Amino acid sequence: MQPRRQPSPAPPPPPPPPALRPGAPLLALLLLLSLRGAAAVPEEPGQSQDAGPSRGLLQQAARAALHFFNFRAGSPSALRVLAAVQEGRAWVNPKEGCKVDLVFSTERYKAEESTFQEGEEGLGKCSARVFFKNQKPRPAINVTCTRLFEKKKQQQEDYLLYKQMKRLKAPLDGVSIPDSHGHIDPSLRPVWDLAFLGSSYVMWEKTTQSLHYYLAQLTGVKQWKTDDDEIDFDYTVLLHEFSTQEIIPCRIHLVWYPGKQLKVKYHCQELQTPEASGTEEGSAVAPTKLSNF
Amino acid sequence: MQALLVLSILLGAVFGKEDFVGHQVLRISAAHEAHVQKVKELEDLEHLQLDFWRGPTQPGSPIDVRVPFLSLQAVKVFLEAHDISYETMIEDVQLLLDEEQEQMVAAQTRALPLSTDTFNYAAYHTLDEIYKFMDTLVAEHPDLVSKINIGKTFEGRDIFVLKFSTGVTDRPAIWIDTGIHSREWVTQASGVWFAKKITQDYGQDSTFTKILDTMDIFLEIVTNPDGFAFTHSKNRMWRKTRSTTPGSLCVGVDPNRNWDAGFGMAGASSNPCSDTYHGKSANSEVEVKSIVDFVTKHGKIKAFISIHSYSQLLLYPYGYKTEPAPDQAELDELSKAAVTALASLYGTKFKYGSIIKTIYQASGSTIDWTYSQGIKYSFTFELRDTGRYGFLLPASQIIPTAQETWLALLTIMEHTLNHPY
Fold first, then answer.
1. Architecture of A55-110+122-268 per CATH?
2. Which of B90, B96, B77, B68 is nearest to B9 (CA)?
3. What is the pLDDT of residues B151-178, one digit of tens each?
4. Domains of chain B by range and CATH?
């Protein structure tokens, strides 16, 4: 269970890492840290990586930053994925954790099925500072990205998605998105995008220096309420944690309205201990953990 | 309902050709005890030849009866006269039987690909369908392809390897396996495509013909049959084998942590519930041991390629230690050439390097063992994509994935051919 540091309803951005606050102590700290070993790794996509752990760390930081960015943007039509890390520096402090400054490019997360498209067009650019506290989750993130889409257009697309979702009836039980064959029904695409948005929050919080996640599948819809203005979406997903290769079921409950900050509650199942009951399909428990509600 | 229809057919066959043209099945609603009695009276009239599928018992319980064409009018008049409501469940029993017959025949013909030319490579298939494909391919190219049974899985399924050979005695060989992790569906699907591709290109493509004229190719398409069946029946995300572990309720061992190379060291889990559980000992998994025995017995495998998904990576040893492999430089250069060839088709970008540096520390992995056995060209692929769909790669991407991967495989095979050792 993670302690919540923000009980207030409006979710403030996470406090900037200590190193960002101005002052002489900061300078001293930076000098000290740089003496410890700053690894600057210029990165070109497609290159052979023999750069060791640094490259992996930069990737981790980029992913975490993007999850956080997507969550904070709160826009299911403007989701982004990592294209490539372009440059980065990492400072490792064995006592505190590590700080990563990086620049990376992004592309649009259009869950397109057809022949694989590597979109060179429409690449966005982000710069981020990510602070991983020693193997603890919920990295502190400061990230800014260039606009991929014109603000008005993004709002329109969100509103269109919103309208599509309002029209969807809730016979969404038993649904798996994508299905076993990787197919997503076009009418359910908005549901998937919204699920991905909520999952971004979860994946941001759970990412550490060594753990990173992908959204594998939406496995069930417990509730899909659209009668109020907001979309009230209670669902279960499977997250794929890469370094352990585990599949983690999570129950996520979100409330969304275009332009408003996304509200998310979630609960993920922990890995079973050796003596535990070996059910592969664990049912996700009702959310007990408050996040930014 | 189906069972009853089939039973009727059987009875018809036994008692001579009976047909059911114009017969109807009525569902009678007997609201009162009096109605039930009336229907029982009907039952006693043998000349009507009524066949009660659900007999009259008590008010409220539906009564289903098959009524021969000639008795229809009489029965309906009787029911209506006594104010007993009914509905027609089946308008024409024979029609339904004919449809069912058609479906059964169609299903059977669907199950057997008429030829590997009509097999759908752009779709994911079941274990049975893939095994049937293999038999069909062997039947079509008996001089080129044969099927070898290398063992039985934990749950008793056959483990098959296809051998492609233009020679008589065992030549130096290339080994390719797909599907060792069952949820990585694009790999088994690609394996099926590779099998077909080999039979198409031999004698057509000069480079490939040279390869197969000198070396044999072994292709194990479903390396983890139990796991694969499980991904179809119960859990699409299943990775491991399906062996049971005494003392634990958790099932399965990670077959890519079960090999005898750094077994049990950091880079695998000792928790049976974990997806990277290494098993109680090296080669404890019959799926792994079968390959170990085969490779050892063969003795002349020169390139060993194990195919996984996802991440778009080409990897070489080691996974369990950071120390560079003695052939690192050559493997690195060959990897670069292979991913370049791969990218030439659709622009798909692959990264490459040793397992431990490129993906993560992994102990007991396949190619660490094969490399330790002297198989210099030991590689692991991680195919499409990089996380957008992950294991649930859309079927529409199967063929492009297989096509581009084949170019990388050709690069490795050609290098192996030109650098005998």
1. Roll (3.10)
2. B96
3. 999 999 999 999 999 998 879 999 999 9
4. 19-91 (3.30.70.340), 115-418 (3.40.630.10)
